[in-house]
Description:
Layout (H helix, E strand, L loop, with lengths): L14 H12 L13 E5 L5 E4 L1 H6 L13 H5 L21 H10 L4 E8 L5 E13 L2 E10 L1 H29 L6 H29 L4 E2 L1 E5 H10 L5 E3 L4 E5 L8 E5 H18 L4 E11 L2 E8 L6 H8 L9 H16 L3 E7 L3 E9 L5 E2 L3
Parallel strand pairs: 9-11
Antiparallel strand pairs: 1-2, 1-5, 3-4, 4-5, 6-15, 7-10, 8-9, 11-12, 12-14, 13-14
Helix pairs in contact: 5-6, 6-10, 8-10
Amino acid sequence: MEQQTFFAPAKRLSKSEIAQSVERLLQNSNFKIIDFIPYNVLLLNNCRQIIYCNKFFLETFKIDDPNTIYGLRPGELLNCINSSITSGGCGTSEFCKECKAVNTILSALDGNPASSECHIFLKNYTEIFLQVHGEPFFADAEEFVFFTFEDITEKKMKDIIYKSFFVSLKNNISEIKMASQIIDASNQKLFINSISKNADEILDQINIENFIFDAYNNRITITPSVINFYDIVNEILENYSNYEFSTDNSNTKVDISSIGRDINFISDYRLLYILLKNILVLFNYLSQRRDSHLKFNARVDGETLFIIFQSDDIIISDNIKKQFFRKYFSEVIDTKYLYIYTIRLIIQKYLKGIIEISSKDSEGSTFIIHLPYRIEEGINES
């Protein structure tokens, strides 16, 4: 049966064919020099499969028997979320067209050394940044690739978060400065409101950055408690006048009249508060109209809590949808992407839920979040 691919060739060699290749390579004593290289080194065949790895790699990944990984491709080894979308495996999904690691390997197979930074979203909803390099290698008329990679996740995450934070901070301070230059007796209230709004946005941004750093360093502790859904939503909205979320572009009126007063469940109050608030703010950022309406509801069905956000006025673009379902932490310096990141992180990693998004020009947009009725206490390190 032919394996499916939308990008790189899906063809693979069998275990016996790989064993024969390795045996031929090891007959050359010079080849074993890669065991002395202090970096992660994988030798890939022309099907992009791992057929050999150096000692540094085995020690780094705590692998006792290298035969357990021979035949895999790099994305399958690292548990990339896109590596199992198609039957062809790593490199064969539509999303792999954008993967810098796959393109680096393909370039090397064409005879051109290549280096790049690669961003991989993993199956456990974490993500890594890698500095990758592919070097063509020929032996006995066979083509191979020396593939090296270094984990640069910590550096990249800090760079992205710092950039987004300071860009946002600069924008807020600029707004305050502009308002101060036009203040007079007739618009003092407007100036005060501008200061208050921008101060709130700065605090929100700081809180988001702190949460992401805590999550990245596995410092988020799950503390379950009994929560009344109406009460937590009402508490969030009481911080905003007339149940409205406002930004420069939009005022979103929130309708919670359909929420029952008797919906109780067990979850982490702080995480749920951050989640709900960030979704409300995100809807406001995504609004295409000056005045938008958002209906908010929830229900319990068996062991699942369903949280529903629906707006006829707000359309979620395909690009925004992709941010939720496959495109990891965006390097675009845009506040809404930070909100998307924290929403997805809380739902998938900490509250063990899923999110559905539907959006049509004729119907508006609907978010449906599925959360377990009860979560367990502890520190999530997955």
